[in-house]
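Can't paste images in this forum, so I'm doing it all in text. The chain is below; anyone willing to post the predicted structure tokens underneath?
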Amino acid sequence: MGKSFWIILAVIVLSSVGLIFFVSSDDSNAPKTTYEALQITDTDHVQGNADASVVMVEYSDFQCPACSALYPLTKQVTESFGDQIAFVYRHFPLVSIHPNSMAASRASEAAANQDKFWEMHDMLFERQNQWASSSDTSSIFEAYASELGLDLDIYKVDVVSEETSKIITSSLSIGTSIGINATPTYFINGEQILVPQSVEEFRSAIQVALDSASNQ
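Text version of the structure:
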């Protein structure tokens, strides 16, 4: 075969690759970018102002000791900024090392259906040592639900529902797609930040984002 044949073949192959790339790049099922994945959704749990210019997202695991240790700091900082920011909690239960984390996520979603997500969220972290190693989390979480004034019959249906599974699975899937592999992981306006070691460090990271947003 002559040299011209190989040149023509190369052009055809490169053109085909380019076409494949073009088609793939327009695929509506293509993975979302980190920025897109961190936009507030209808199933997200949000404290503060959902329309704020600064959005902080935490991927967390209710059974994670580090998440529990950071919980008071996160709560203090987010409450101090109030409606200046939106704070979003997303599930990332690491069931391979925290076997009760999925049950805790389910309990929080069942509570959310009765508008008590944040109350259950706080209770799960504040009492983590009560249930983390338990072999009967169902009874413990039902007691929490009762304490929060939830309708237990509704709670018991919601905690095992397919819709609850979908919400948690979706959070896990999106988190995995953007590289989450540990908890807690924080993002501010789409940018991952180092896990804050103090209230001052946490406040500073948020204030920088607020200042940046006000200058745009």
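The beta strands are 45-48, 54-60, 85-91, 185-188, 191-193. The chain has one domain: 37-214.
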